[in-house]
Amino acid sequence: MKVESSVLAKLPGIHHAFFTREGGVSQGIYASLNGGVGSHDDFTHVQENRRRMAEALGAAHLITCYQIHSADVVVATHAWSREDAARADGIVTRAKGLGVGASAADCGPLLFADADARIVAAAHAGWKGALGGIAEATIAKMEELGASRKNIIAAIGPLIRQQSYEVGPEFVARFQEADTTYARFFAPSTRPGHAMFDLAGLIRLRLERAEIGAIDDVGLDTYTDEKRFFSFRRTTHRGEPDYGRQIAAIALTD
User: For the packed helices 199-209 and 134-145, what is the interaxial angle rounded to 10 degrees?
Assistant: First the structure.
């Protein structure tokens, strides 16, 4: 049902999970633990799946944003409804029992914690968010609440890995224009003019430059592991009509 960061798992009073697609009630292409409120799955199934996730976290509630591939981060003090969800890609909280999460199906789910300050966060980092600074914005928002950068631990969850992420020349050019050192994140593809993109590498570099306390990466590929993970790109390649979403979440408990 879930994958954990070995580093975050050591923190007292904090529960987290990179939930897989296993252990839910959804059916068909959404089987079975689909947490995507933006999918076309039966919403009662998604609600039940999210209830199970909250229970597994030991949280009273689990919330996510209406994600927009941005570097926008909000502070959550209480649970919100689907209709009232903030339009952002990161959530920070110090509220006990409130699980904060990010949904993804190839993009990078990030979880953060400062165990001493009792502040946690979740963020959604696709290539736009990673390039735009979602990781740094989440860290800055945690600091505003009282976290210390040197005490923050960040974990990178399952996402599409370089061996599965082919991009075109315009994509490569965009990154090189932003920072010439980003050329390191592109390897040759078998198709002329294309390249294989290392999203996880980019996210890690941005976290390293932020000089936080520790970074962990679970190292799993959503595209190749169909049994455990939904994948937007795999769905696209197969011409399927829709896809489910994983949830990564973290909560302050005891």
Answer: 40
Read off the tokens for 25: 């009630």
**Could you tell me which residues are beta bridge partners of residue 74?**
91
Q: Which residues of 203-226 are buried (b: 16+ CB within 10 A; e: fewer)?
A: bbbbbeebebeebbbbebbbbeee
Round to whole Å and give the CA distance between 136 and 209: 9
In this prediction the pTM is 0.98
Strand order through the sheet with 73-75: 73-75, 90-93, 119-125, 108-114, 153-156, 214-217
Report the sign of the C-alpha dihedral through residues 124, 129, 130, 134, in that order.
negative
Q: Are the C-beta atoms of residues 134 and 125 closer than 8 Å to each other?
A: yes
- Topology of 2-161+215-252 in CATH? CNF1/YfiH-like putative cysteine hydrolases (3.60.140)
Per-residue pLDDT tens for 58-85?
Answer: 999 999 999 999 999 999 999 999 999 9
Would you say how long the chain is, in residues? 254
Model confidence at 254, pLDDT cuts 50, 70, 90, reads confident
Distance CA 254, CA 250 (A): 13
